[in-house]
Amino acid sequence: MMVVRTQVPLTLLCIVMMLIPTGCDFATPEKKIAKHRERAQKYMETGQYPEAIIEYQNIVLLNPNNSETHYRLALALLKVGSVPSLQGAFTELSKTVELDKANLDAQLKLGELYLLGNEPVKARERAEIILASTPDNTDSLILRGRSFLGETRYREGIAELKKAIELNPQNMSTYISLAQAYFAMNDVPAAESTLNQALAKNPRALDVMLALGDFRDWTGKSGQAEAVYKQAVETAPENEAVYLKLASHYQIHNRLAEAENTLQRLATIKPQAESPQLYLGDFFTSIGQLDKALASYRRAIEIHPGSTAARDKMIANYLDTGKVQEAEEKIAEILKQNEQDLMGRFFHARVQLSHSKTDDAITLLQGVLKDTPQFAGAHYFLGIAFMQKRQPTQARAALADAVKYHPKLGEAHTALAQIYLAEGSTDLALQEAHVALQIDPRNLQAAIISGEAYLGKGEFAKSRQVFDSISKALPKEPIGPYHLGLVARSENNMVKALMHFEEALGRRPSAIEPLTQIAMIKTTQGHHAEARQRVERQLEQNAQNPHTHNLLGQLASIAKDYTRAEQAYRRAIALDNAVLPSYMGLAQTFLQTGKIDEAMKEYEAVLAKDPTIIQAHMMLGLIRESRNELGKAQTQYETILRLNPKFVPAANNLAWVIVQQGGNLDVALSHAQTAREGSPDDPHVADTLGWVYYKRNTNLLAINLLKEAVEKLPNEPEVHFHYGMALAKNNQVADAKKSLQTALQLRPNFPGADEARKTLKALG
After folding, report:
1. Which of these, 647, 348, 714, 280, lies nearest to 497 by C-alpha position?
2. pLDDT of residue 83
């Protein structure tokens, strides 16, 4: 067949080709590069650095061996200033000097990044490359001097900095570095003289003023420091940094009203700037006024609706204050626009943590850290996730990375201190707690950890000092006097201990810990009736507290008043059907009064009517467990967990019966961890999980949990037995003997008594 070919006009062809993505773009690579460069320069001039970065990256793709483009890209990345952008700038500067060693500014900036990364030797190498060709380059002399200071080679550093000042006496940053060197050598007069010399050269040098103020604050001259900071504000009333420095000074010295007023003054001067509102929000966050912080962040967003900084701070505030739903709505908006958004994924991980979806949170955080390895916040929450999973080794590593990348992240130091305290490493716990308190003297958790660490070391006076300070600082909270009671009890001063525990109850009548301590002391002294009467008086003030009814049941059982015990346990369960100790106490009461068959018939009748009644299943499991019908008890607990996989009492007891039958310890551990996640403060759960760890030869974890259980259940012989066995396995002979002897004194024939006697004999 003949094909007729027609001539298509070139104009029409181009019109058609314009509809195709490749179009008729006959621009040469050189023209494309010129366009990208022109746009990049305009973006740099207007401060649109992310857009400029994209343009320079396009040029690199077209011409990867142009040193000037790599250098310009590095400058744009440095302008952004975030950790990832600094990492990118380092890469680009390295490529620049590889292609063009004569680019001295790139060499200098690369050296400064090495110095920032705490690599002073490599920083000095860059300085010396420049000085080889330009011996009088003052910036390079300063870099070399600071590199010596980074290695604590102060005299060599001072010599370089003095040489730089001789060559350029108007460079104020050199005076500051020199003053810091003198200060590091404890030469205070020389440090102050250097800063005054700089101000004589330039009386309006803000950086020097602020450095002088800092110097006077460090040397205890608070009033003089304040005067210098105020002078800086008067010198540059539009400069945000001077207001921040003055506000920080007031905050450090606990003059919070003046700190707030300073930041409010800045906000008044710059009503259309978002940054003052962000500073105010951060200030309110640091002092715990989270509602005011949220209002400031919202105001920042009103001023600048596209502010990612304000958005992220607002989401963090939502999560910190338990407003998870509000946070989720904002996070969904972020991820809808870009599912790979770094902060969106980070906040999504925090939401997963709040929902106890720990594994999902860990996966998300590890993904975030793969993209930004130096993100301290992600390392911190990864550590918290591992703590929730009771994996202290992984938690410790993540938290160590958090403080490595952000040394002033007080929450990470506090969490590390908590891990060390749980492991019995009291010195390390104190070290981290003290760092956290230096960062924020109002860090209550760090203060408590330090007091408990001193108590663990037997340094009672220091522990008492810490908790006395807490008691005075928080006059309405029971935590101070409660811990003072523990200190007095450790000193065997029961009169003072009772006084402190009573004070704690006076502050919060619902607090069960001090009431338990009072009852335990009176019981140990043989005053059983007084112990019961004291608990009954407390019930008159708060009759709806299930834990108080449970404690009364325990005391009634000790006094063999089983009718009263049964009533108390039933009342506790009626008020809260998830209180494990009450089920256990009620089952024990049935066992001691011979009402087992009667009780079983009652619960079986309930289940015949409704097989989903968890309480009935639970009681049948407990009764069968008490009759040593462990297989049937296990079936009962498994039935409960099919109905409610997170039901703490069943998960705890299932773990226990699996261990008692010599079953799969991994399965037992899983159930015990489920119980612990659901009830982290229950000492019975701590006892079970600790005993599982003991059986798995994970002894340090076992000791920490069993110690917690003993402190909260001082009248339970089995708990003392478990703790003693774990201590014995860890060769802590004296403490092991004490715990095993206590167990036998409380009840000579408890289950495990024979093994306790055998172990005591072996311990000598």
Report:
1. 714
2. 66
| DSSP string for 199-240 | HHH-TT-HHHHHHHHHHHHHTT-HHHHHHHHHHHHHH-TT-H
CA end-to-end span of the chain: 111
The two structure tokens encoding residue 457: 């070391």
Predicted local distance difference test score (pLDDT) of residue 584? 65
The residue assigned the tokens 């590069």 is: 33
Cβ neighbors of 109 (< 8 A, separation 6 or more) are 74, 78, 89, 93
Q: How many CA atoms lie within 13 A of 416 on its CB side?
A: 26
Q: List, in sequence order, every beta strand (DSSP E) within 593-649.
A: none
- A 10 A CB-CB count for 476 gives 6
Mean pLDDT computed over 396-417 = 93
Tens digit of each residue's pLDDT (9 = 90 or more) over 682-703: 999 999 999 999 999 888 888 9
8 A C-beta contact, residue 618 and residue 650: yes
pLDDT tens column, 40-68: 898 888 888 888 888 888 888 888 999 89
pLDDT tens-digit profile of 64-90?
A: 999 898 899 989 888 877 667 788 888
What's the CA gap between 235 and 427, in Å, rounded? 47
DSSP result, 662-687: T--HHHHHHHHHHHHHH-TT-HHHHH
Residue 619 φ then ψ, to 5°: -65, -40
The span from the CA of 204 to the CA of 470, in Å, is: 44
The number of residues making up the chain comes to 764
- Tell me the two tokens of residue 420: 């060390």
Cα angle 141, 144, 148; round to 5: 135
Please enumerate in sequence order all residues whose Cβ is within 8 A of that of 160, keeping only pairs 6 or more positions apart, or say none: 141, 142, 144, 145, 148
Sign (positive/negative) of CA torsion 62, 67, 71, 74? positive
Q: Where are the alpha helices (DSSP H) in 304-422?
A: 308-320, 324-337, 342-354, 358-371, 376-388, 392-405, 410-422
Quickly count: other Cβ atoms within 10 Å of residue 360's Cβ: 16
Q: Which two three-digit tokens encode residue 546?
A: 């299930």
Q: How far apart are CA 290 and CA 9, in angstroms?
A: 71
Beta carbons within 10 angstroms of residue 642's beta carbon: 9
Cα gap 612→622, rounded to integer Å: 17
- For helices 172-184 and 138-150, give the axis angle rounded to 10 degrees: 20
User: Rounded to an integer, what distance in angstroms lies between the CA atom of residue 404 and that of residue 416?
Assistant: 12
Amino acid 27: pLDDT: 60
Q: Is 97 helix (H, G, I), strand (E, B) or coil?
A: helix
How big, in percent rounded to 5, are the helix, strand and coil portions of the chain?
Answer: 80, 0, 20
Structure tokens at 657: 């019966």
| Of 140, 206, 152, the residue nearest 180 (C-alpha) | 152
Distance CA 666, CA 360 (A): 21
* CB count in 10 Å sphere of residue 4: 4
Distance CA 480, CA 476 (A): 10
User: Is the Cβ–Cβ distance between 92 and 60 less than 8 Å?
Assistant: no
Whether the per-residue pLDDT at 117 is higher than 90: the answer is no
Distance CA 305, CA 307 (A): 6
How many C-beta neighbours within 10 Å does residue 665 have?
18
Return the percentage of the chain with pLDDT > 70, whole number. Answer: 95
